[in-house]
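Q: Hi! First time asking for a complex rather than a single chain. Here are the components, and I think there are two in total. Is that enough to go on?
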Amino acid sequence: MASFLLKRVVSLLPVLLVVMTVDFLIIHMIPGDPASVMAGPNATTADIAQLRSRLNLDLPLHVQFLRWAGRAMRGDLGDSLFLGRTVNRAVWERTEPTLLLTLYGLLVAVVFGMPLGILAAVRPNTGMDRGFMLLAVLGVSIPTFWLGLIFIYAFAVNLRWLPAAGYASLSEGFGVNLRYLMLPALSLGLNQSALVARMTRSFMLEVLREDYIRTARSKGLAENLVVLRHAMRNVMVPTVTVVGLIFAVLLGGAVTTEIVFNIPGAGRLLIDSVLRRDYPVIQGAVLYIALVFVVINLIVDMLYVIIDPRIKYA
Amino acid sequence: MSQIRSNVEPSRRNFLKGAAAAGAASLLPWSQRVSSASAAEAPRTGGTLKVAIIGEPPSLDAHWTPASITHDLTWHLYEPLFTLDEHYSVIPMLAEGHSLSEGGKLYTIRLRRGVPFHNGKEMSAEDVVPSIARWGKTATVGKLLFKTVQSIQAKDRYTVELRLTAPSGLALPGLANFSQFPAIYPKEVVEAAGDGQIKEFIGTGPFRLLERVPDRYIRMGRFDRYAARSEPTNGYGGKRTAYVEEIQFIPTPDVAVRIAGVESGEYHFSDWITPDAYNRLLQNPRLDVMIVKPNEWITGIFNKKMGPFTNKKLRQAVLASLDMEPIMRAAVGNKEFYRLDPGLMFKEHVWWSDVGKEVYNHPDREKAKRLMQEAGYKGEPIRWMCTQFYEWMYKSALAAKQQLEEVGFKIDLQVMDWASVMSRSTDPKMYDIFTTGIGDKVDPTLQTPVNCDYPGWTCDPKLDAMMARLATETDFAKRYAIWVDIQKWFWDEVPVIKFGDFFSLRVQQKQVMGYANRYRPFFWNVWLAAR
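A: Yes, that's all I need. Here is the structure of the assembled complex.
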């Protein structure tokens, strides 16, 4: 296991190097640069050139890349051109909102999705099964941002039960934090709960057809014990894979929710940075996202071992 | 080509009459909304005002960027030497007054005494000189003005001398300009900044910076030792009082979220609301809505450095093809929010003129086709850059494209993000025309469509000579006459297409009192009524 872990950590390096190079090249290939954005529409060509020089954007591309990559390998991702802070700090400040939103969204997806999927699987081809799966199709089809806008209109503007937008950090209190994230988490999570429901149903149906399940039933075990004690364990392995993937999707998909609910998360940071060509932030944020994906994959692989002791890594 | 006439004879008497009329007329839209029931309720201190703004400001250094969001926030923290009253006349702010001597080349500016910065230090000439000098090197208007500045120095602790190489009509308006305004910082802050942005955000304004968390909020707290002017509030000048304890400016890029936020009570105020929400918001008994006049005019800027629009006849052909009413309706929607007007300076301004009304918005397809033929246009695609980031830019370009194609133009509409438009607009190889908006200017010398240095490159010896005279003349009546000639030149040469003026919408909760609806928003003199 230890050598497996070491191999995975070492293999991070070439992955990150490729990400850094592609990321840098792509952002520098698209038209527009931070100098023209900062200078504004009334600036002269000379104004923009002066600003470009101040920001070292007139250096040859390979020099800019080597300078940035060299510092990045030491953990220094540079300073944001617009936010008045380092990239590390800008990304770190936005980690909490995105992480919490994603976790709450994931919780909603699992809490709503798994029971629905299990119930549909233990009563296949019944009205309940068809009803739940119809809900699942609807859930997958509804865009997250539209659901978010509906929630805002209903619960914030009309009923005034919850805030329409914004964010309160955990340090301001768990209750306040939850108040601001409840609607965004619901709109993000309900969409994915549909996928969790369908996948859980599918895995559960497969497992319920296994011989050992027939044996457990024939021994007279109550159906709920058969499902929860015997079937669930085997359903968990593929389900954890799906949940891991959903976590990654939610992390990326959270950006629309962050925009709709005005949450200062990492997704919004990336979008805003692309629009204003804040090169250091774009480069740094993409690197962080790549790192997160790799780490999530590693955690999922570790969870397999815990859930199914038969799995061993060399 | 019909003769372009002015409707105003340039004379001092007419200027005074016109200024009085313009001043009276300008009072109407500017002060059309001071918050309801403000006369009935006395101001009260306290509370936190939450303002949803269109995005994160690129900087809190007022000298650094012309972004209007930077200005709208930072003028609560910093103050300039001069500002504008409700008629766009220059009035003192941190200055006590000034005198002009040596044939208009020496400005002697007397400073107010006992004005503290947020760090307790008294503002004096030793702070003003480096602040203005830095502004002259950094800001677009500053650089323009400083072309004629010979020196700036402290005569004594409370007097600054600004010596010019030639008289300048831009000097005082420039020092009162909104965008990238000449904020006065402590000397130490300017020195520490070097060639970069300031690192401490200290000014003399009624609010001081408490905290900035990018994309969450910028918090400003009342500065209890603020030294207010004693005369009544007048436009952007006069007495400023910080009633609220704190202002939170909350970046909220999505307009639907800004609207929902004010409707739900999360925010007290927001601007840049889309006009299509106007009728619905009017029905909400909890809200006040305000139309902001003037705002901007929508324009298509021709590339006059290379390509087909180096030819004046082709530019005139485009103007002759266009019916501006459907274009503005497509761009803006609600008729309350746009106006068809040939003035390059807004109707609310003392600088306004309707010279050009005989050619502006007079579509004549036969004339357009004839001009196209005379220009030798053979159907080459015209590359038109625009962005959907600002919907009105995209929609106006789309509507204009349709009309031009009906006449025989071939338009290649290239839609991209705003950063790409701004970057490409400086490269004459990349486009033939691009869409943008022209905001309000304090002085016509700052009008970008008639400036050689700006994208589009409106360079013409006759124009340059008139602009140079406008810059050096200090008498208003004479300056106005020159400006009218420039506008005549403009409607003959057509360096850009003016589609029309458009207005914006602001919304606030009825709890907000004392807000004066002017071109740029500000929150001194604003208080929150008890719920």
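A: The domain at 295-504 of chain B is CATH 3.10.105.10 (Dipeptide-binding Protein; domain 3). Let me know if you'd like any chain examined more closely.
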